[in-house]
Amino acid sequence: MKEYIYGRNPVYEALRAKRRQFFQLLINENAKEKGRLKEIIDLARKQNTTVTRVPRKRLDKIAPNNQGLALEVSGYPYHNVLDIVDKADARSEKLFVLILDTLQDPQNFGTLLRTAESVGVHGVIIPLARTAQVTAAVVNASSGASEHLLIAQANLAQAIGTLKESGAWIVGLEGSEQAQSPGKIRLDGGIGIVVGSEGQGMRRLTRESCDLLMKLPMEGQIESLNAAVAGSVALYLTYLEREKSK
């Protein structure tokens, strides 16, 4: 299955990651080959990808916010949960995984992928159904971070079981009375952070699979943060604790 990735950073990162097949790079016929665009064209040519100048209207039909280019690629290369575990083992690091339970919004998904990549997670796990997939919109929202991540589609209950067998504690993010503040939870060991869907949070079976529940302390008038913001904060808190323990 072919699709188009658009936007300068997403296209650049896809070419740099070399995890997909590349078929052709479409460039606005009036664009000047300089800066990041020149880097993109050079990368494409090094990988024997056809570079074609096209009218802006053709790019706008692919995506309105295309930034003057689009890269035709193969579908997203999903991995499996054991690939994520193996990555941590190969680095002699304790597992650090982001688990997304039926997240729906591509922008939220992309934002969390960008954060996850920046804090060094070993991988991201999403359900097999009823969830956002890694589409071109998600790649764009992640600014290309998706291209460097191991993302697995799996039955979450089974995936969580695998992570636990590999030494990870599963921490679900929610604002219930049963949830504990970050200061009361150890975040420096093997860990899987679970972020639920935008409206419903974690599903019951996922919640019951968690070893601990964590809530972010809040002082303002707003009752909660959206999934992308809350998940990003939780990931950074975990990252900081892991850095302290090194």
Characterization of this structure:
- By secondary structure, this protein is an alpha/beta fold.
- The chain has two domains: 2-74, Ribosomal protein L30/S12 (60s Ribosomal Protein L30, Chain: A, 2-Layer Sandwich), CATH 3.30.1330.30; 81-245, 3-Layer(aba) Sandwich (Alpha/beta knot).
- It contains nine helices and ten strands.
- The strands form two sheets. The protein has a six-stranded parallel beta sheet with strand order 7-6-5-9-8-10, sandwiched between helices.
- Helix 6 (136-141) links the parallel strand 6 (123-126) and strand 7.
- Helix 1 (8-17) runs parallel beside helix 2 (35-46) and helix 5 runs parallel beside helix 9.
- The longest helix has 19 residues, at 227-245.
- The relative contact order is 0.15.
- The mean pLDDT is 94.
Regions with pLDDT < 50 over 5+ consecutive residues? none
C-alpha-based Rg, rounded = 19 Å
Which strands sit side by side, in order, in the main sheet? 7-6-5-9-8-10
CATH fold label of the largest domain: Alpha/beta knot
Q: Which term fits the overall shape?
A: elongated
Question: How many domains, in number, for the residues?
Answer: 2
CATH superfamily of the largest domain: SPOUT methyltransferase, trefoil knot domain
Q: Per CATH, which architecture of the largest domain?
A: 3-Layer(aba) Sandwich
Number of alpha- plus pi-helical segments: 9
Kindly state the number of beta strands: 10
- CATH class of the largest domain, please? Alpha Beta
Name the beta content range: 15-25%
Major sheet attributes: 6 strands, parallel
Distance, first to last CA: 42 Å
Percentage of residues assigned to helices: 25-40%
Helix- and strand-based class? Answer: alpha/beta
- Helix and strand pattern: EHEHEHEHEHEHEHEEHEH
The overall pLDDT average reads 94
